[in-house]
Design brief:
The structure is a single chain. The protein is an alpha/beta fold. Helices cover 22% and strands 12% of the residues. The protein contains eleven helices and twelve strands. A hairpin with a 6-residue loop joins β3 and β4. α4 crosses α5. It is globular, with a radius of gyration of 21 Å.
């Protein structure tokens, strides 16, 4: 693709109203990219949610459940739930993932059931007592819609929610329709393959950290590889994206979660998220989440910041303490999983025995990465150890690509 053909999605999210958090999810102009060229203006990307308008016959005379959040938008004024209600589709329940239906909850914060104040529809949490909907929660549903904006990283939990929704629906013989959306890190495939003994909600499948798939393609892979419990498969349909390929830049019109405020944060997310398994802050409690890193225990790195409670981080790591690290807000866009930030922080930490915590292995999907860093292996040496696994994954991935 010609690098001058840069797509700029200008859709703004209209908040539906707040069910519990006291604030509506904030819209965000995520990109500093230029306006679209004539060719892409003529052929703009159309998401699966936008294309659902032409496929409403799939929902006619059916009781519809939908898992979505603030990213489930159609155009500059309409959320998917609003559209379906307006079109007289019988939506009976909304299911909310991590961060909630409005996307305002902190990472890992317990999400409670509630009610949408605009449509009066019940909202069922899939990030509370159960991450997999139970049969009672799926009662009165004939078909399940799935519309969440993913960012292409294994530990971004929307694909884990996808797994559990597909599994629960398969067990209850409920078809699932995934409304596909572009992957903003769409062509990057990189990182260690998750070893199955390290599975958790931040890593459920034997894939690299960056998988290079849309969420619709990923759903097909979960189903096709029989990764659901007991190898069960769900009746799955993907509503495709139009005018899209994996090498296309894509700027999200809405923050996918509270601490991914812009394109830079989304691009750096996979590389910096490893710090969540260490004593290093990724900028939660600042305005530069996932664009800076630092801790009170780092020396020789000049950038300073002090985390304080804010939107999306009620009690951030190192709250009120001065942290030293690096500012990456103007760093060039990464095209791979970068380890140099993790290695630099480790090498400049005063007490390295306290650098890692037990969560790091879950994020890495393997115990090897921590050992490799502690052994002071170079980034090139570590990356070479991923090569066989990535090559094997790419062969599996190829079977399920749609674009």
């Amino acid at each position: 693709m010609n690098s001058n053909l840069i797509f700029k999605n200008t859709v703004l999210f209209f908040a539906l109203g707040v069910f519990s958090c006291g604030k509506s999810a904030q819209t965000s102009n995520l990109s500093q990219q230029q306006l679209p060229t004539t060719q892409q203006t003529i052929n703009p990307i159309k998401t699966g949610a936008q294309n659902l308008v032409n496929n409403l016959n799939l929902l006619q005379n059916k009781k519809v459940g939908i898992i979505t959040n603030q990213t489930g938008i159609i155009d500059n004024q309409t959320h998917l739930v609003d559209l379906l209600v307006e079109k007289k589709i019988n939506v009976t329940k909304i299911y909310a993932p991590e961060h909630g239906f409005r996307g305002t909850a902190d990472a890992g914060e317990l999400i409670k059931d509630g009610k949408d104040t605009k449509t009066n529809l019940p909202i069922i949490s899939l990030y509370g007592n159960n991450k997999k909907p139970n049969p009672e929660q799926l009662a009165n549903i004939d078909v399940m819609l799935f519309d969440l904006q993913d960012v292409g990283a294994r530990f971004y939990t929307y694909i884990s929610s996808l797994h559990y929704v597909m599994e629960a629906c398969a067990e209850q013989n409920i078809p699932v329709i995934v409304l596909d959306r572009p992957n903003p890190n769409g062509s990057i495939i990189d990182g260690p393959i998750l070893e199955m003994e390290n599975t958790s909600f931040v890593g459920m499948h034997p894939i690299p950290v960056l998988h290079g798939m849309t969420i619709g393609e990923y759903a097909q892979m979960i189903n096709g590889e029989r990764w659901l419990k007991n190898g069960i498969q769900v009746n799955l349909k993907v509503i495709k994206i139009e005018n899209y390929n994996h090498n296309m830049p894509y700027s999200l019109p809405v923050k996918p979660s509270p601490n991914l405020p812009n394109d830079q944060a989304i691009n750096l997310y996979a590389s910096l998220c490893f710090f969540e398994g260490t004593n290093v802050s990724v900028g939660r409690g600042t305005e530069k989440q996932f664009q800076i890193y630092g801790s009170p225990f780092i020396t020789n790195l000049p950038f300073e910041f002090t985390p304080k409670p804010n939107f999306g981080a009620k009690d951030p790591m190192h709250n009120g303490k001065k942290c030293y690290g690096e500012d990456l807000t103007n760093a060039p866009k990464v095209t791979q999983l970068e380890l140099k930030y993790l290695i630099a922080a480790y090498q400049n930490t005063t007490d390295k025995t306290k650098f890692f915590n037990s969560f790091f292995t879950k994020l890495a999907g393997t115990k090897k990465l921590q050992k490799q860093i502690e052994m002071e292996m170079t980034e090139d040496e570590i990356r070479a150890s991923w090569e066989v696994g990535i090559n094997q994954f790419q062969k599996i991935r190829a079977k399920y690509l749609l674009y």
